[in-house]
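ARCHIVE CARD
Drawer: 12
Card no.: 0347
Subject: one protein chain, sequence and derived structure
Cross-reference: see card 0346
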Amino acid sequence: MTFKKILTGAGFAALLGSAFLGTTSCQKDFIDLNDPTRIPTSETYQDSSSIATGVTAAYSSLQDIYGKAGSNIGLFVFSEVPSDNSQAVVEGQGLGEFDYFSITSANGRLQSQWTVTYRGIARCNIIISRAPGVKLTTALRNRYIAEMKFIRALEYFNAVQIWGDIPLVTTEISTVADAYTYGRKPVADVYAQIEKDLTEAAADLPNVYPTTTSVLANANPGRATKGAARALLAKVYLTEKKYPEAQATLQSFLTDYDNATNYRLLPNYADIFAISNELNAEIIFAVRYSKGGFGTGSPFTNYFAPLAAQAGGGQGFQYNSVRKDLVDAFTASGAADTRYNAELGGPVTVGGASVYYTKKYFDTPTTVSDADNDWIVLRFADVLLMYAEVLNELNRPAEAVPYVNRTRVRAGLTGLATTLDQATLRLAIENERRLELNMEGHRWFDLVRTGRAYDVMNAHFTKYNIRSNGGTAGAPIQLNPDKHQLLFPIPIQEIQTNPIITQNPGY
């Protein structure tokens, strides 16, 4: 039995319900105390089996964060839709506000992302606090806690990039009164906790999990590994502009894992995303989904498709449609770039408009929004390009170029010259990350990290004459010079509920 299959079935649903749903109702709290932040301490987590179930539930919280039908639309709303890669064509979900930077604190997507994030963090906190009191082998206990620290770090990393200063909760909350004591902590404090969690997780996570069918042992593919913790830590350092720390972490990662046994680039780009090839050698960590009517299917086939024909059946929602700018970027990269046909489809005509779409999330759903596509969080190509970026920022461009060229050559392009200067290579890496990793949840965060978001987006709006809220009158959108739009507003409900939580400037 694979870990992916543990996330399905009536047995898991019943265990999840009994462990996490029997709590006191409270509508006014910033972390959704209904489920599963506060649970009766005397009724659950008494043995190794319940701890194992709780660990699985923490993994399942990642589906809510990255996207799940009936729950939260997903992280791509924050990481792709605001960028020059994609747009949300559909009306009625509040996604257009992310397209046109007209978002308000009442937008429902903000609230749902906040709620599922802190719900997931709470699940991790519960296991971290309870596991030491349960009879487990030392190795298994340490591994469970390490897995929870990895997930908690990932969830906080996403949240701090979205909102900046955020409440930092690292212990189990058992009362409503306790919840109201958590205000926003500075970004530096949040990143310090993320670094701590990932460093400690990397120490206790295995490189690989033993091959076994034991559910209790939880030795199943898809769980966080030592490599995943190290790769995510490197991305955190890079985001913080801690280039020496990022360089050391990435160099160590590549020394240990850049080989045929561990991680490598697949020869064929399209194979990375094939349903028949999940958790392949290029994937370091992915959020797992499984179709079949169990409520754990992937929604992205339907979410991103423009028409039912591209969705493999059912509805095409157009939540994340490819912008012409991305198509033009591929055209500029050269006809030899094999990634274009592998990942982009269209144009197709929808409502009289030409629409492009991504093919990275193709599957035939069992029903609408019930497909098998995993969401890839970290893959080896990302690590190579991160290392190139770090070396270049350390003013070592000649050393950086070969790492960029590995993804370029795989794509059928010629390699960059090692004589490129730092400024030129900086833009080349930005473009290569876009072509290689588009629609995987990186572009907006990449632009913010490199300080290029305003320049790139203002040029994009001008080039394509994009006006506010998709209108046809007036001048193209130009983002404000105060740069408050690099962060998103705190959901208004959180501020109204907990007065010590403040709003981001500009909203």
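Annotation on reverse: The longest strand covers residues 344-350. Residues 409 and 415 are 6 Å apart (CA to CA).
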